[in-house]
Design brief:
Helix content: 25-40%
CATH superfamily: Metal-dependent hydrolases
Oligomer: single chain
Number of helices: 11
Distance between the termini: 34 Å
CATH architecture: Alpha-Beta Barrel
Number of domains: 1
Number of strands: 11
Order of helices and strands: EHHEEHEHEHEEHEHEHEHEHH
Largest sheet: 6 strands, parallel
Structural class: alpha/beta
Strand content: 15-25%
């Protein structure tokens, strides 16, 4: 494996862990905690230069979703309910305020990535690069009036939906075995969101979007498609994963898919247990390379938002993953693209 190859990761939920709701003490991104997957020490140990850091709004009434109950064949589905827009706006403001304070407190440790030049710089900078992403645009109204302020506060990527409906689209249910071909596509407001994000310089993320919404976005978008954290549906029939034709649509647009590390979207048996071998994640990487080509595959961990396999552990495990990928015959050039090059290339089209 090439020494010192930097990683730019497609997705994590670390900000929600560091900035919990009122009543719980905030955690420092500089501390190697006893729990969680990502902080500055673990990023440095794993060669992680930066990534998409998600702002995700939990439901007001509950910290954790109910656990789905599998049937006798281990099949299950779960669809989260919509959340209140006013609550989402207040939570988004709280998180952005906490993030601003985090940047102000640690300017020598953290880099706010606003432009493509910032992304390139973070690959060789000692600071951890943070590109702010919204996972589920529940805080934005159908007229998209909130977008300019969100842009000014540093948002550079938005997933119109998480796996719950809103005024823009319908997210896919969680489940196994399950298809993402369920529900209607983009609303008129959803098409407006795509257009206005492109005009401002905010990337659109297709992760968590159902099939019709995916197709509608592909039809109306003018820039390369991005899915930051998805697996291959042919290897694991999770509704969160993309079918071969969806993978090819992303590749044909010049876009990129970040391979998700969540064991439940990789194993193929409906379980989300951590005893999965890391080679199973590599299976998804190689499958996408075969379907899409080396210019369109990246890494999208979902750290601090999903179950990781024990063999990977946390962000310090990136070198183990890259070594396994090269051990399966992937060239040094392709590995560099997977680790960071493909995300940076595609984001140059999106960020102003």
């Amino acid at each position: 494996m090439p020494a010192g190859i930097p990683v730019f990761d497609g997705h994590n939920d670390t900000l929600q862990r560091l900035l919990p709701r009122t009543g719980d003490a905030p955690q420092s991104i500089l501390d190697h905690g006893d729990s969680g997957h990502l902080d500055v020490p673990r990023a440095r140990a794993g060669g992680m230069a930066g990534g998409f850091f998600a702002i995700y709004i939990r439901a007001q009434e509950s910290r954790n979703p109910p656990e789905p109950v599998p049937d006798d064949n281990n099949a299950w589905t779960w669809t989260p309910s919509a959340i209140d827009v006013a609550w989402a706006r207040a939570e988004c403001d709280r998180l952005l305020t906490g993030i601003d304070a985090m940047f102000d407190a640690h300017p020598d440790q953290l880099m706010r990535c606003l432009t493509h030049d910032d992304l390139v710089a973070c690959l060789s900078d000692d600071r951890l690069g943070i590109l702010l992403h919204i996972e589920g645009a529940a805080m934005i109204g159908p007229d998209c009036a909130e977008l300019p302020e969100l842009y000014e506060r540093g948002i550079r990527s938005i997933g119109p939906v998480w796996s719950r409906p809103n005024c823009f689209a319908h997210g896919i249910r969680f489940g196994w075995p399950s298809s993402n071909d369920i529900g209607p596509g983009l609303t008129e407001a959803g098409r407006r969101l795509v257009a206005e994000c492109e005009a401002l310089g905010i990337a659109i993320d297709l992760s968590h979007m159902n099939r019709q919404g995916f197709l509608d976005t592909a039809q109306c978008a003018t820039k390369p498609l991005i899915a930051t954290h998805c697996g291959a549906h042919d290897l694991c029939e999770s509704a969160r994963n993309l079918t071969d034709d969806q993978l090819r649509m992303v590749a044909d647009s010049g876009g990129v898919v970040g391979v998700n590390f969540y064991t439940g979207d990789l194993r193929g048996d409906g379980l989300n247990h951590a005893d999965m071998p890391l080679d199973r994640l590599v299976d998804h990487v190689l499958y996408m390379l075969d379907v899409m080509g080396e210019d369109h595959v990246a890494l999208g961990s979902d750290f601090d938002g999903a179950v990781m396999c024990d063999e990977l552990g946390d962000a310090s495990g990136f070198p183990r993953l890259l070594e396994l990928i090269t051990g399966r015959g992937v060239s040094d050039t392709a590995l560099s693209k997977i680790a960071h090059g493909n995300f940076l290339r595609v984001l140059e089209h999106h960020l102003t």
